[in-house]
Amino acid sequence: MKLIKDDITKASEQIGLTNSQAESLWQALQETQSNKTKFNLSTVLLYLGALVAFASMTWFYTSSLDSGKSLIISVVYALIFFGIGAYCWRQKNLKVPGGVLSSLGIVMVPLIVYSLQNLLNWWPTPSPNGYKSFYYLAHGEWLPMEICTLLAACLLLYFIRFHFITVLIYFVIWFMSMDAINSLVDAGTDPFPYFSIVSIIIGFFLNVLGFFLYRKNQRDFGFWSYLFGMFLCWSGLTIWEFQTEVGYFVYFLINLAFLFLSFFFHHKIFMFFGSLGVIYYIAHLAYILSESLMFSYILGAIGFSIILLATYLLRSRKSSQSN
């Protein structure tokens, strides 16, 4: 619902507010609206630019620099991002650009710690095989880098209440859990089942956190908590090695439950991941029953039934809104 200043003035007169109180109310509403995140083209471009910058400054250039140059450049980048981000956030009231730039400063922290450890030759376990492997290789030697990044992200969130910073915190916690598991399991033991279990557990608690954040009217923070939580839950379930068809069917039922839970929690996120899981299960059935013509008939009937159900729900919603 879009309000203009005349509407606020008239409503204020009806409930007996003074002109100064009406003006204060209007200013408060303006500030509230400006602080809300709107995913328009400019916002999407800001996040896209941040991802491109992240890739260029942490993935590509490190392979051709020694540790000393890498440390200097990463510290300079971090100071620039933190400085400009804080300036945009506090002085110019540009919340999204300021928050995104500050988040890029956090992204530089693991590279700073890595370069410093290389210079001092200080590693709790054998030195890792290049900084690039930090993003895909689970190993206990990354823990000091992750602890420093987590502390820096929490400190930044204390001063700049930007919701996307929580994603970096969730991401680092997830990485820490993977690396801790890799350090604790015996050599020769497959760690992937443990990765799946821990991902599901962390995802579950992030969904619980998202639920309470929504109830506290912190929707931007709740959105990212729901999104990352559901990503961890769904990915943990999907990479699980199911040995029997019963296991695959349980996986299907869990994703079907996500679809039903979408009516009570963040419907778009739960519906998206639940739909992905159902499609994955159907693809599995299609693979093992590819020679069965009856399966195609059954699958077509299921798809048509889903369309009818969606049509019924849409009509029911429209009739309830008109009443």
How is this structure best described in words?
By secondary structure, the chain is mainly α. Helices cover 76% and strands 0% of the residues. Helix 1 (5-14) packs across helix 2 (19-35), helix 8 packs parallel to helix 10 (219-238) and helix 9 runs antiparallel to helix 10. The chain starts with a helix and ends with a helix. Among the domains are: 1-35, no CATH class; 298-323.
Which terms summarize this structure?
323 residues, mainly alpha
SSE arrangement:
Blueprint: H1 5-14, H2 19-35, H3 41-60, H4 67-90, H5 95-107, H6 109-120, H7 143-159, H8 164-184, H9 192-215, H10 219-238, H11 245-261, H12 267-288, H13 293-322
How would you describe the shape?
Answer: flat
DSSP summary, beta strand count: 0
N-to-C CA distance: 19 Å
Report the average pLDDT across residues: 79
Q: Helix count?
A: 13
Summarize this structure briefly.
The chain is an all-alpha fold and 323 residues long. Helices cover 76% and strands 0% of the residues.
